[in-house]
Amino acid sequence: MTISSQRLILREWRDEDRAPFAAMSADPAVMQFLRALPTRQACDQWIDFQIAHQAEHGFGFWVVETRASGAFLGAVGLFRVFFDASFTPAVEIGWRLARHAWGQGIASEAARAALDFGFNTLGLDEIIAYAAPANQASQNVMRKLGMIRDEASDFDHPRVEADSPLRRQVMYRLSRAAWASEAVP
């Protein structure tokens, strides 16, 4: 399965994506606000988990590549939240892009394609996103997507160490109705 946008293709994982994903995950700037993947094995396990999620649910984090060259840019997608929280069950949208893809609207364009798939193909009623409070770049993308900040749903991530600056997460939400009223063809 592939999802296309003007400049991008979102597609399932291939073995040749493992090395560029690991290289991207070794960049401290890319991983500043994400849970660490400190080894190639950890990166491969993350990819394997995405492949299994895709097989089970029909969606997950897809590889993002350019339509023009097929260059690996990162991963964007939808994912079931697998921990208990006041807002679960839920599907989240997320992204992680190689530094060379930053500042070009890639995250927003790929996320719009994923949101369109989530709302119009999967029929989801709501998609959420969350990030560490200091991750202003991701929060900017969330706002560009039309997501609304929900301070009442901010939470401490149960899979992040208590003393980590990534433990606290701020919540954004987007309903299918809001997406439909704001969607740009």
Structure, explained:
Pfam families: Acetyltransf_3. This is GNAT family N-acetyltransferase. It comes from Bradyrhizobium aeschynomenes. This protein has about 180 residues and is an alpha+beta fold. The protein has one domain: Aminopeptidase (3-Layer(aba) Sandwich). The protein contains six helices and nine strands, in the order ββαααβββαβαβββα. It has helices at about 20-25, 30, 40-55, 105-120, 135-145, 175-180, and strands at about 1-5, 10, 60-65, 70-80, 90-95, 125-130, 150, 155, 170-175. The strands form two sheets. A five-stranded antiparallel beta sheet has the order 1-2-3-4-5, sandwiched between helices. Strands 6, 7, 8 and 9 form a four-stranded antiparallel beta sheet that branches. The model has no long low-confidence stretch (mean pLDDT about 95).
Characterize this entry briefly.
The chain is α+β, with helices and mostly antiparallel strands.
Do you know the CATH architecture?
3-Layer(aba) Sandwich
- CATH topology descriptor: Aminopeptidase
Beta-strand percentage range: 25-35%
| Major sheet attributes | 5 strands, antiparallel
What gap, in angstroms, lies between the N and C termini? 21 Å
Shape field:
globular
Classified in CATH, the superfamily is Gcn5-related N-acetyltransferase (GNAT)
Briefly note the structural class of the backbone: alpha+beta
- CATH class, anyone? Alpha Beta
Report strand order across the widest sheet: 1-2-3-4-5
Low-confidence stretches: none
CA gyration radius, whole angstroms: 15 Å
Individual helix count:
6
Number of domains: 1
What's the rounded overall pLDDT mean?
A: 95
Strand count: 9
Q: Helical residue percent? A: 25-40%
The SSE string, one letter per element, is: EEHHHEEEHEHEEEH
Domain N-acetyltransferase: 8-167
Protein name: GNAT family N-acetyltransferase
InterPro entries: Acyl_CoA_acyltransferase, GNAT_dom, N-acetyltransferase
Organism: Bradyrhizobium aeschynomenes
